[in-house]
Structure formats: C-alpha cells, structure tokens
Amino acid sequence: MAGDMIVEARGMNHWFGTGEARKQALFDIDLALPRGSLTVLMGPSGSGKTTVLTLLGCLRGVQDGSVNLMGHELNGATEAELTALRRQLGFIFQSHNLHESLTARQNVMIGVQVRPGVNDDLTRRAAAHALDLVGLSDRIDYLPANLSGGQKQRVAVARALVGNPQMVLADEPTAALDRDSASDVVDLLKRLGAARGTTTLLVTHDNRILDRADRILTLEDGRIVTNTGGARGNDAKMHSRAPKI
C-alpha cells in the first residue's frame, strides 16, 4: 500500500444472508483514500454506502477481497485486531446518540475513556478542546436536553475527534443540520485534514456540501459507478491541536 494512502481496498465483495437468502451487496469495490483527504460517498438508499463504511471502519469483517487499513490487512483479521484498529478511528452518525444524563463534556469524554490507561484530567482537557473546535465551549456543561439539534450533532462530532483519530467515518452527519451548521461541520473536517492529516469518508445525500469534497464516489447497486475528483482545500489551517490521548 502506498505510504500516502490510509486505506486501500481491492476487489472487495460482501454478502448478507445465508443459503437461498444470500444476497450480494457489494461487487468488486476498488478504492484508495489518501491521508488528509475528504471523500464523499453518494448513492441511493440500498446501494451499499453504509456497508462500505462499516467494512472500512472495522465494524464488520471483510469477507472477500483485500482491505488494507493503516498498514493492516482486514481480511482475516481477528476481532481483537479489529477492535484495536477501530479505537484509532472516529465515527459520526446521523443520530447523535448522546447519553441524555451526561453533559456535553462527559459525552465527548466517552470517545477516549474506552482506552486503557487514559488519564482523567487529560481526557477532560481534550474534551474541552474538542468542544471548542466545534464552537461549543460555552455549552460544555449543558445536558443534551438543553441543546438544539445542531448543537447535539456538533457534540457528536467533537466525540469523534477527541482522540485525534487517523480517519473519521461519517454516515449522514449533516442530514439533520441547517445549511450553516452543515457547512461548519464539513469545514472543520477539511481543516483537520490539512492540519493533522485526518482522513474523512463521508456518506451523504446532502448536495449542499459536495463542493467541499476532494473526491466524490457514487455507488449504485453495490458498484462504484463514478469517481469524480474535487478541489483540494489544503490551504486551510488549524492553529491549535487537541491534547494527545
């Protein structure tokens, strides 16, 4: 795998079900994601977008083909190996999935507390920094019930970013956001790519954000049918970094 690629898939196929009910969901998927890039994956419902996301994110096992993530082959990887790799990734979903009884900071801290040997004070400072990055430093001690829908989603973004992940996998992260909030989220991910080399794969139906993508892939019936390059926004800067976890 080329050194500037964080993930490279070759001939990736996937099936669901068994016996006569077995159905192929992905067909011979080839893709490579450069470090620091923001790639948008589009396609109609049922086209296989989320399946690609979960395979590259180590949320399910690779059945056929080669998937190299951060120098590790996923086909044949053990559950322990997948778990270790998954902890180096960040995930953002359409549903913010916040714990209603926890503050914004406490929800973000969950993003790194699963790691062994994490220092509580460092985790608190890292969570505060991540919330500042998404513009919520003044909401750090608010419960989700006291946040707007857009603010809740930004807390979820902060939770994905708090551990300085090498790659962020986002499934419809802007669907519930207004135009300005959606732009803010994607611009932040772009700045992370420029400043930290964080790679983003973003599944979306949101046409409002396509002009910010470095590349747009389109899936139809489990196959990549278009691969369109975009403008690479490498001039964006981020002057502060989250404390290392």
Strand order of the largest sheet: 6-7-8-3-9-10
Largest sheet: 6 strands, mixed
* Tally of DSSP helical segments: 6
Number of strands: 10
What is the fold named in CATH at topology level?
A: Rossmann fold
Structural class: alpha/beta
Architecture per CATH nomenclature, i.e. the level-2 architecture? 3-Layer(aba) Sandwich
Number of domains: 1
CATH C-level label: Alpha Beta
Uncertain spans, ≥5 residues at pLDDT below 50? 231-245
In angstroms, what separates the terminal alpha carbons? 27 Å
Helix content: 25-40%
Any descriptors?
four-stranded antiparallel β-sheet; about 240 residues; Rossmann fold; six-stranded mixed β-sheet; alpha/beta; disordered C terminus
Walk me through what this model shows.
By secondary structure, the chain is α/β, with parallel strands linked by helices. The protein has a single domain (5-229), classed as 3-Layer(aba) Sandwich (Rossmann fold), CATH 3.40.50.300. Helix content is 29%, strand content 27%. The protein contains six helices and ten strands, in the order E-E-E-H-E-E-H-E-H-H-H-E-H-E-E-E. It has helices spanning 49-56, 79-86, 104-113, 120-133, 149-161, 179-196; strands at 5-16, 23-34, 38-42, 64-69, 72-73, 89-93, 167-171, 199-203, 215-220, 223-229. Strands 6-7-8-3-9-10 form a six-stranded mixed beta sheet, sandwiched between helices. The chain has a four-stranded antiparallel beta sheet with strand order 2-1-4-5, covered by helices on one side. A hairpin with a 2-residue loop joins strand 4 (64-69) and strand 5 (72-73). Helix 3 (104-113) crosses helix 4, helix 3 packs parallel to helix 5 (149-161) and helix 4 (120-133) packs across helix 5 (149-161). The model is unreliable at 231-245 (pLDDT under 50).
